[in-house]
Amino acid sequence: MAGARPQSEEPMKARRHLFRFLAWTALAVSPAPAQVASHVSTAPATSHRAYSVPPSAPASGSSLQVSDRPVARVNGAVLTDRDLLREMLAIFPYARQHNGFPKSEEAKIRQGALRMIEFEELVYQEAQRRKMAIPAAQLQRAEAEFRRQFPNREEFDRYLQTEVQGSWDLLRTRIRRSLLVEALLRTEVEEKARVSPAEARAYYDRNPKAFQYSESFSFQSISIMPPADASDSVKHEARGRAEDALRQAKAAGNYREFGLLAEKLSEDDFRVNMGDHKAVDRDKLPPEIVSAALAMKPGEVSDLLQFGSYYSFFRLNAHTLPGKMPFEAVKDRLRQDMEKDKYERLRSALDAKLRLHAKIQEL
After folding, report:
1. How much is the pTM?
2. Where are the beta strands (DSSP E) in the chain?
3. How far apart are CA 164 and CA 174, in angstroms?
4. CA 241, 245, 248, 251 torsion: positive or negative?
5. In terms of domains, do 156 and 223 share one?
6. Could you tell me the pLDDT band of residue 98, with boundaries at 50, 70 and 90?
7. Residue 2, in any domain of the structure
8. 184 contacts 350 by C-beta, under 8 angstroms
9. Residue 310's domain spans which residues?
10. Do residues 322 and 214 touch, judged by C-beta distance below 8 A?
11. For 7, which DSSP code?
């Protein structure tokens, strides 16, 4: 648990899966009503819009093709390759752009997706066992929300024909199923995963090292780098170029001007990023740089330094002394981290519990 690790979304939003099955008409497959499961994926997603299918059908032999063949049975309920592919695309959406999954990763993606659709089916069956219900008003709102995802009536009608054989009742059943899965996960995982400010503070106090940072220097460099076995005349010419570059850098007034010089003159790998090394811990820097940086103020440019046959100098942008991030600065991200970790532990525990007495057959 690292208090400084940034999070792009709150964990409680991580499993918003409703309507993942949106816009699959472009696959143009022949429906097989006897085998179509009511699966709707529960894998993490920030937006179901991200899982729309491109407007052209996949090429023959593409791993994006489906035939509605069974891939698993969970206590008798059939899950199909259509269900599996939806989940695989949730894990690796770039497959649409490349007309398939990377061969080196496809088996791993498939297995992860299969585990997820099995888990969701188990959650749905558990919700049914508990006789959980979805209020009519909530179901109506969900239906309206789903309908609004389509750009026009033609696209919606195409979805109905391809995915649910034109049946509003089957669509309503799928939406209700998704809502039941979400409701049970909210009760058994989401609500239990919440972390209070007091819990976050207690973790912060128990793990002081997780929030400490080392002394570091932020700087930009310009380097002239003749080959180690260069002749004396080449080395002399290189030093002349380095001294000329240093004069120009000393006259540079700010970060950008120095950076533009680095892009133009420098020969080290950092030239493509305006010479910027960002923050580097003191113990990872050569002693010559540390010694020079300690005598400088931010914004100053060092004298010419020599490392073997190389010549280099740098602009100091910041010197950060070691310290500890205050709780107020990390509390929000820390709670998000803790909730995400707790959510995954609870979800895994629920998965294990539901599988314990389930009959699962992978085909």
Report:
1. 0.66
2. 70-74, 77-80, 212-213, 216-224, 276-281, 305-307, 310-320, 323-324, 360-362
3. 9
4. negative
5. no
6. confident
7. no
8. no
9. 215-321
10. yes
11. -
